[in-house]
Design brief:
Helices cover about 75% and strands about 0% of the residues. It is mainly alpha-helical and about 180 residues long.
Length: about 180
């Protein structure tokens, strides 16, 4: 095997064959390496787009990364033999919290200490979920039909989360 074939094989192991189905499909499983590779790639993509400092582009990119990360979490939960509802709920609360804190810090907006503690709690819970998903070994027998009831219709769940996040942003911006 040549060096380029080895690199192509490693890339296939980490990022899959087709990026669209790898990132945006809720079918299949992710092992630990694929889960890590997906999250690194998605966060790099988001940070690169956010650095362009175009609010609309950052918002659209954030929604795209949110959807793809939901798919990655569901695939990883399926790999370890869990439905993943708790992981999905914690991520759904923590992701907007991290993005809101980033925005608050960049704009030098004052928010009260209680709100900062609540947001930090969500982020801490997300880190615990991430560590659990990253280091938990995969199940010997994979159940491909195992899925969180929240993600039975992922597009509807995604729309509900986006609506809640936008409403919360509007509420915080008005107060």
């Amino acid at each position: 095997m040549s060096i380029s074939e080895k690199i192509a094989y490693i890339n296939k192991l980490i990022w899959g064959e087709n990026p669209c189905s790898f990132y945006f499909s809720f079918n299949g499983t992710f092992n630990r390496l694929q889960f890590f590779g997906a999250l690194v790639t998605l966060n790099f993509f988001f940070n690169f787009m956010a650095a362009q400092d175009i609010l609309f582009l950052t918002f659209i990119c954030g929604l795209t990364v949110f959807y793809a990360t939901l798919a990655a979490i569901q695939k990883r939960c399926r790999d370890i033999g869990q439905k993943g509802s708790v992981c999905i709920l914690i991520f759904s609360a923590a992701y907007p919290a991290t993005r809101y804190l980033d925005y608050v810090n960049e704009q030098n907006i004052f928010i009260n200490e209680t709100m900062k503690k609540i947001l930090a709690t969500f982020i801490g819970l997300y880190l615990l979920v991430y560590l659990f998903l990253q280091f938990m070994p995969g199940a010997k027998e994979k159940e491909m039909n195992l899925s969180s009831p929240l993600l039975k219709h992922p597009k509807i769940y995604f729309a509900i989360c986006v609506t809640i996040f936008c409403t919360a942003c509007l509420f915080y911006s008005l107060s």
